[in-house]
Amino acid sequence: MLNGRIGCNEFTYISPQGKSVVDYVCVPYEQIGNILDFNVVKMSDIINTVNHCPVSVPDHSLLTGEIRLPDNTPCSITCDTSDRNIESTKRKYNVSSIPDSFLSDQERLDLIYGAINRIENSINVDNCVQSAYDNFCAVVKDEMKDKLPVIKNNTTNRNKHTKSMYKPYWNQVLQDQWNNVCKSEKDWLKSEGSNAHKKTYWLKSEGSNAHKKTLKEKYCYERKSGIASERNESIPWSVFDNEGNISTEKDFVLKRWKSDFEDLFNKNDHAQPSIEDNGNDIQYDVTKLNDPISREEIIKAVESAKVRKATGFDEIPAEVLKNPTAVELLFDICNGCFELGKIPEQWTTGIINPIFKTGSDDRKNPMNYRGITLVSVPSKIYCHVLNSRLNEWMEANKTLCDEQNGFREKRSCEEHIHALHTVINDRKIWKLSTFVCFIDMRTAFDSVPRNLLWYKMFKAGIRGKFLTAIHSLYDDVKCSLKVNDRLTPWFNVDSGVKQGCLMSPSLFAVYINDLAERVNNLNCGIKIDDIELSILLYADDIAVFAQD
Questions:
Q1: How is the chain split into domains, by residue range?
Q2: Which DSSP symbol is given to 150?
Q3: Interatomic CA distance for residues 152 and 351, integer angstroms
């Protein structure tokens, strides 16, 4: 019997009811010399190692041993690591608790002041925002490396999965409970038969199992009823080729995803209007649009930035920007971008996450997915400032038609629903017919011709540095698609407004704004007293009215 003879002497059965040795390993006496090691591994240790927690934890431990083969033939196990996860090359930090000393201790401040001087010199002397932004990223990333703990779960070992990959309902509360169960188990095993430690272990184990069971049942119910998000499901490694056959070769799948989205984002832009100042145009006061960016605007944008969100290509999270030093750095960067009409390369480079569209039925068709671009967080700060200015200016100058309620302050979709409901009900009472055509434009944001968008913005009175700043956001845009754990080749994006950008709804509203005027001029709408209702818009959702 190897138990107690070689290696450790541990209990093989552990449960809230007790602990004992009930599992044994026996070998012929003459073979004992070939037994190099023997161990009893608790189930809690195995679960922590593989990061996979079952609904119920087995009571019996795992018995392992190391054996010398008679011919001394070495045993080796190899695994294929060629298909590495793209996330493995990134270092992810725990940003849930930023220390007070972040970007604020004296040694770091000396380096930051030097970086600020280099940033200002790059912008004011060299007219180069790229060098300035590279300095900014270097300062922030060095501080993250020194001050923030690295999340250890994201390793290069493909076998080290997080529990949530196996259990979608797993959360931090369950993880903390499981850690407490493991700790109380160790305390009980070290104690000399203490009933207090045993009771503590039993209580924590039962509480963890009950909570786990509740979350699992809730998740199963939601999944069965269709509430659970389908985007947790992986994208199938299969697409249709040009002959209509299904291909499962990964390189071909990636190329097909790339070509389909490249075609979507690069529609032929036949509209080539010239942006020339016309003396007959209405003159607007664009002073507020073209004023230098203020520190207060940057502070407001940083405060409104959402935390616990995915980072862009530069890997800078919003949490590390919410301090005075980072605000000062961003103030210089954003002002330089606005004054020069240029932005760093990291802001025009994005990774697209495909999200399966609700109501679609074929997961093998890339066009059944909506592409959401992960953009740089500092670029979101810059776009927040520009978007706030644009919306305030358009509301003050009544740029947008009254029929458009999409993404406008103090307006909502509910107002349009109420208007639609009231009109139809009232006309039914009056025994009048009402015809409504509901239009949801396919790939609306992705198919906007940019030249025509710049022209319409110019005609609406949006000019000067502000229009140049908007234009710079779309110069030389490059994207790659993330298909499961792989990236497609990079490709240029020459049409459309960015999915996931704060400014896109406002830009699209400007682009589609004259549609309401053209429909109203047809005089085919519904008469309500002295008003004719012809169209209602909410971003790219449209309802067109007619009485016959």
A1: 13-82, 172-227, 246-407+446-508
A2: B
A3: 23
